[in-house]
Write a structure and sequence with these properties.
Layout lengths: L1 E6 L8 E6 L2 E6 L2 H4 L2 H12 L3 E6 L12 E7 L5 E5 L2 E5 L14 H4 L3 H4 L3 E5 L5 H8 L4 E6 L2 H13 L5 E4 L2 H10 L4 E6 L11 H18 E11 L6 H15 L3 E8 L17 E7 L1
Parallel strand pairs: 3-4, 8-9, 8-11, 9-10, 11-12
Antiparallel strand pairs: 1-2, 2-3, 4-5, 6-7, 12-14, 13-14
Keywords: Methyltransferase, S-adenosyl-L-methionine, Transferase
Protein name: Class I SAM-dependent rRNA methyltransferase
GO molecular function: methyltransferase activity
Length: 293
């Protein structure tokens, strides 16, 4: 129903990503060379997929490095304000024109189904929730309570829309995640399942050291917010934060708070985001599911 159909270098088309959301397509171009083929790309997509609409999500700052303008617009067909997607057991709304990235985080699509064994009967804290994909699934899988947290009120409005569509109850909190986890930690609050999926902290190699400190601070609090025997799902989408470095960070954070952890699962981007191993940062998404003792 929904998948990434073009993933840059991994598909031999550097600078281009194309996502399919049912009858709708969303693409993003980040290189000058690919920009020159934009009209042809749209024609090919129309011919191959016969979509109802195509959205150009060329509104990312990296385009400025290529001297390209930032813009998001419908380039073909008619796009409704929201489209409804089926993902595992959930129905999720997506805003392809204004939502983050190309409108929906397809790279976490498979991982959202992984929370099923850990959610039953648990209180759940879903941090940096965007449209609530993880939290909505946790609620459907039997969580006793779900709190979704994001700094964007627009994202939380989408969470509430998704909760209503799936007939589940979640609470939403608009807050800076660092401030919130500090507040909850100092108040002694704990949850049976904590999900932490922040935006990329390290967007350049020179920012990696400070990003590691940020990831460690956030995950340290998340570990403390997880009840003994509970579970933490923690992710990083920073291409410069390698899986070994991410594991090292979490191990050090667990040592600092005196909470032993057991690794249950390792996560990566969904299979429709294949990593070309000759492209240095194609394997950018990594995640860990640990039990916190």
């Amino acid at each position: 129903h929904s998948c990434r159909v073009v993933f840059g270098e991994s598909d031999g088309l550097p600078g281009l990503t194309v996502d399919k959301f049912g009858d709708y397509l969303s693409y993003q171009i980040v290189s000058l060379g690919m920009e020159q083929w934009q009209d042809t790309i749209v024609e090919i997509l129309i011919d191959l997929f016969k979509p109802k609409a195509i959205v150009a999500r060329n509104d990312v700052p990296v385009r400025e490095k290529e001297g390209l303008p930032q813009e998001a617009k419908v380039v073909y067909g008619t796009l409704p304000p929201y489209i409804l997607l089926k993902e595992h057991d959930a129905w999720l709304y997506a805003d392809l024109l204004h939502g983050q990235k190309t409108g929906h985080f397809l790279d976490q699509q498979e991982n959202r189904g992984h929370v099923k064994p850990y959610a039953q009967g648990k209180t759940v804290l879903d941090l940096c929730c965007h449209s609530g994909g993880f939290g909505i699934h946790a609620a459907l899988y039997g969580a006793s309570a779900v709190e979704c947290v994001d700094v964007s009120q627009d994202a939380l409005a989408l969470v509430e829309k998704n909760a209503a569509e799936n007939d589940v109850t979640v609470t939403t909190t608009c807050a800076n995640v660092f401030d919130l986890v500090k507040e909850y930690d100092e108040a002694g609050r704990q949850f049976g399942l904590v999900i932490c999926d922040p935006p990329a902290f390290a967007k350049s190699r020179k920012a990696l050291e400070s990003a590691c400190r940020g990831y460690k601070e956030l995950n340290l609090r998340c570990l403390r917010l997880t009840e003994p025997g509970g579970f933490l799902v923690t992710c990083s989408c920073s291409q410069f934060m390698t899986p070994p470095l991410f594991e090292k960070m979490l191990t050090e954070a667990a040592g600092d708070v005196g909470r032993p952890i057991r690794l249950l699962e390792t996560l990566m981007q969904s299979r429709d985001h294949p990593a070309c191993l000759t492209a240095e940062h194609a394997l950018y998404l990594k995640g860990l599911i640990v039990q916190v003792l």
